[in-house]
Specification:
The chain is built from 6 helices and 10 strands, in the order ββαβββααββαββαβα. It has helices at residues 21-27, 79-95, 110-117, 153-162, 197-201, 222-232, and strands at 3-8, 11-16, 51-54, 61-62, 73-75, 134-135, 141-144, 167-170, 177-180, 207-209.
Length: 238
């Protein structure tokens, strides 16, 4: 297994050649914000919050999908990146109807945490205020499209871990929505196994357990990584 030596924020570190910049940074104790990334799920670089500067490359690179290279020099927290991340978080808040005070994930929301981390005290952009539905047709869970940030973690958890392929995304741009079974009500889905992995994966209050009230949606997201690791190591085979 080849080892690569690179510099991240003036810190010389070593990483395995198959690792991403995000993984190498985390092992070195360097924090890079993310929203679409989750242990146990494949990386897609959708949220763009983990963009970093790489010397010699003009464009910003997503740390979650960029592999380490020998001699690579990476900057993760410049003023340019701070401004860019704040803009992204503000746009996420403006695109849907995120009213934290009445959200089931209030206090346990990754989007809310990111807002605090980037120093967001207001949104500079006009709120789109779309008419988003809340689907309560499932007997155990609900989906509130007002809270969705289109990270597609629910889609990947359902596809990669459960293998049910219930969730998908339809539409383009601000009209995009996560859907179940070709836009059928979730409760009418023929493929959903009611496993709850999509609930564990969701970073906001978009997918929730029915009956939850404000501040009750604590999630143990490491459960998904545990399931994947146990399967790979065949820990459940007797």
């Amino acid at each position: 297994m080849a080892v690569k030596t690179l510099t991240i924020d003036d810190q010389l570190i070593s990483a395995r050649e198959e690792q991403t910049v995000l993984e190498a940074a985390r092992e070195a104790g360097i924090s890079i914000p993310t929203l679409c990334e989750l242990h146990g799920l494949g990386d897609i670089g959708a949220c763009r919050l983990c963009l970093v500067e790489v010397t010699g490359i003009a464009k910003l690179q997503p740390a979650c999908t960029t592999r380490v290279a020998e001699g690579m020099v990476v900057v993760t927290n410049s003023q340019r990146l701070q401004n860019y991340r704040r803009m992204i978080v503000e746009l996420l808040f403006a695109e849907r109807n995120h009213i934290c005070a009445v959200c089931v994930a209030n206090g346990h929301c990754e989007l809310q945490d990111l807002g605090l981390a980037v120093g967001m005290d207001h949104v500079r952009y006009e709120y789109l205020s779309p008419q988003c539905q809340v689907d309560l047709s499932h007997e155990r869970f609900g989906v509130d499209h007002n809270r969705c940030v289109l990270c597609m973690r629910c889609v990947r958890a359902c596809d990669e871990i459960e293998g049910a392929h219930t969730w998908d995304v339809m539409g383009r741009g601000t009209a995009s929505r996560v859907i179940t079974d070709l836009k059928q009500p979730w409760g009418e889905s023929q493929s959903c196994t009611s496993c709850g992995k999509c609930v564990l994966a969701c970073p906001t209050g978009a997918i929730f357990r029915r009956g939850s009230t404000v501040s009750e949606m604590e999630r143990d997201r490491w459960q998904l990584d545990f399931i994947v690791t146990a399967r790979e190591k065949k820990q459940w085979i007797i």
